[in-house]
Amino acid sequence: MPDSQHLRNLLKQKELIEGHLAWIHAEIERETQISSQEQEALDASPIPKKRIEVGSSEKTRSPQVLQQSDALPDLLEQLGPDSTSASSDTKKGCFIYFGFAVAALAALITYIYTAY
Predict the structure, then answer these.
(1) Strand, helix or coil for residue 46
(2) Rounded distance, CA 7 to CA 2, Å?
(3) What angle do CA 73, 75, 77 make, to 5 degrees?
(4) Could you report the per-residue pLDDT of 84-97, keeping only the tens digit for each?
(5) Residue 46: phi, psi to the nearest 5?
(6) pTM of the model
(7) How far apart are CA 100 and CA 113, in angstroms?
(8) What is the pLDDT of residues 22-59, one digit of tens each?
(9) DSSP string spanning 29-82?
């Protein structure tokens, strides 16, 4: 006869898994009921639903939407950071930090040289 302890452990694990699966099925059923109730409430709602088109191309968009999307780069150019000056400012800042580091190293070497 096989090891009865091992068989009991396997049966216990099987029972736990079946319990977990039953819980999962109950949760799926509950969520399905909730979503169907929400859909019924939305269908009964007097508020018109807003349609969102997915994957619309430039040709199918309305002129108003095209004007808004064309205005976005202009707005970014006006309000966004100037990338050319930001780049040069960053380079200047790096050179300043490098200069301070070299000066601190020179001061440390001078201190060590004169102290010893």
Answers:
(1) coil
(2) 8
(3) 70
(4) 777 888 889 999 99
(5) -75, -10
(6) 0.32
(7) 20
(8) 999 999 998 888 877 777 776 776 655 555 555 555 55
(9) HHHHHHHHHHHHHHHH-SSPPPP--SS--TTTS-HHHHHHHHHHHHHHHHHS--
